[in-house]
TrEMBL record:
Catalytic activity: ATP + protein L-histidine = ADP + protein N-phospho-L-histidine
Organism: Pontiella agarivorans
The protein's name: histidine kinase
Taxonomy of the source species: Bacteria, Pseudomonadati, Kiritimatiellota, Kiritimatiellia, Kiritimatiellales
Keywords: ATP-binding, Kinase, Membrane, Nucleotide-binding, Transferase, Transmembrane, Transmembrane helix, Two-component regulatory system
Residues spanning the membrane: 15-37, 201-221
Entries under SMART domains matching the protein: HATPase_c (SM00387)
């Protein structure tokens, strides 16, 4: 998992959370605005009926005042004007109040008496109508008694209570107040239509605003993603550079020690080989097989030391030469040929594709391949076969080492590239661990591709970026 992939889920969750919070705030704002609008529109609708009844009552009083011979006092004319206004559609009854707000009479007589509210009293004192919508009122609060109540056909209805001041048209002298009780089904239906319309407006507004909000936030999130990805990549490259510097420092220290050791071992091993060879020629009492084994071991160690010194020398500077893949294969096979002949193991090599490697890379690959081939030779037993096959797949140069041994036990496979586990008798498993470290250093991949009772297959994949095309 790359650095960006580790941060990406958290970034996406934060974006979804941020957008969700923004949409919730937007929804709350729209709902608040719609509720305020709903209340204001409802007040206007209710007040509309109050203004209409007030104007009608004043008109009726004007008609009475134009009768010159009308002997009725102003209070009676206001009462009669209100009664005539009750003929309007939906008016169920009227309550009358004196200028101080006290109850005085009803029309018809079956209307239930009720005190005048403080809001209504304050309005009529200013000669203004007051309207109030009641969504559900019991019929017992409106009428004293009606026969149909006993049958249970009507219980509660919506009503509009409209209180209008009673006064002469040209004066501000309050004669009293009349509270009209109006059946409110039509207004309840109007309120329902208003609520549906406001709900539609709210949904459309939320959908459009939410879409615009997401559309505006998405580029910012994409930019943030890009910056986070770049930061993660740079952090990863910086961490890798630090690791490579640390590894280079350790390799340099180990290389210096190894170079000192290798140079120190070179001369003693050469002298040992000459001594054993001299004993082999002069002393006939020593077992020849033992001398052969000792001579072979000393020369193999001498060859290994010489090759290690060569690798260390190449690592100190620029590569002085190049090796093609076939040349590398032949060099590797020559180093394990003696071990293969000793165990009667057949070596097979095949390579396709044109590729040349620097001497440093070739030598490091050689160390890995020699270790893999020696392990395969040990695992194959007598008359076995070990194959080294080189191919190219996409951007990888692939080295496959196949043997005809009995496979690697499952317990060993779990810690195959860690020191301390080996399928060979007396083995420590350090060779594969070192090979894996060298592969990682080359940005290569070393894996156990397959292991059955018919044999094992190790796969070493090297990036083609280190490979130079050649016509050879």
């Amino acid at each position: 998992m790359t650095g960006w992939e580790k941060y990406s889920p958290k970034t996406r969750r934060n974006f979804v959370l941020g957008v969700g919070i923004a949409l919730i705030i937007l929804l709350a704002t729209i709902l608040s605005g719609l509720l305020i609008m709903r209340r204001l529109v409802r007040e206007q609708i209710v007040q509309r009926d109050g203004d209409a009844l007030y104007a009608t009552t004043l008109m009726e009083q004007l008609d009475f005042s134009e009768m010159d011979e009308d002997p009725r006092p102003a209070e009676q004319m206001s009462f009669d004007a209100a009664v005539r206004s009750s003929r309007l559609r939906g008016v169920m009854g009227i309550r009358f109040f004196n200028p101080e707000g006290g109850f005085s009479d009803t029309f018809p007589a079956t209307v239930m008496p009720h005190p005048l509210g403080a809001d209504a009293l304050s309005a009529i004192r200013q000669l203004e109508p007051h309207s109030r919508f009641v969504a559900s009122m019991s019929m017992d609060d409106i009428f004293i008694y009606l026969p149909q109540f006993s049958k249970g056909r009507i219980s509660r209805i919506p009503v509009v209570l409209v209180t209008v001041p009673l006064h002469a048209r040209e004066t501000r002298e309050l004669n009293g107040a009349a509270q009209f009780i109006i059946e409110g089904h039509s207004m309840a239906d109007e309120f329902m239509r208003l609520d549906r319309r406001l709900c539609q407006i709210g949904l459309i507004t939320f959908a459009i605003s939410g879409s615009l909000l997401v559309a505006m936030l998405w580029p910012a999130f994409s930019r943030s993603q890009k910056l986070t990805r770049e930061l993660a990549q740079r952090s990863e490259r910086l961490q890798r550079a630090n690791d490579e510097l640390a590894l280079a420092a350790r390799v340099s220290a180990v290389g210096a020690i190894s170079s000192h050791l290798m140079h120190g071992l070179r001369n003693p091993l050469a002298s040992l080989s000459e001594f054993i060879a001299g004993q082999h020629a002069d002393d006939h009492d020593i077992d020849r097989d033992d001398l052969e084994d000792a001579l072979s071991a000393s020369r193999r160690m001498q060859t290994l030391v010489e090759h290690t010194v060569q690798v260390l020398s190449d690592a100190k500077g620029d590569p002085a030469y190049e090796l093609t893949v076939p040349e590398l294969g032949e060099d590797v096979l020559s180093r394990v040929k003696g071990a293969a002949e000793k165990r009667d193991v057949e070596l097979v090599f095949s390579a396709d594709g044109r590729c040349a490697l620097s001497g440093r890379v070739a030598n490091l690959l050689g160390l890995i391949l020699v270790n893999l081939l020696e392990n395969s030779i040990e695992a194959s037993g007598r008359n076995g076969t070990v194959a080294l096959k080189v191919s190219r797949l996409d951007d990888w140069l692939r080295f496959r080492v196949e043997d005809t041994g009995s496979g690697i036990p499952g317990v060993v496979q779990e810690r195959l590239f860690l020191p301390g586990k080996s399928s060979r008798e007396g083995g420590s498993g350090i060779g594969l661990a070192i090979s894996k470290q060298i592969a990682d250093y080359l940005d290569a991949r070393l894996v156990l591709e397959d292991s059955t009772e018919a044999g094992s297959v190790f796969l070493l994949e090297l990036p083609m970026t280190v490979c130079m095309e050649t016509d050879l």
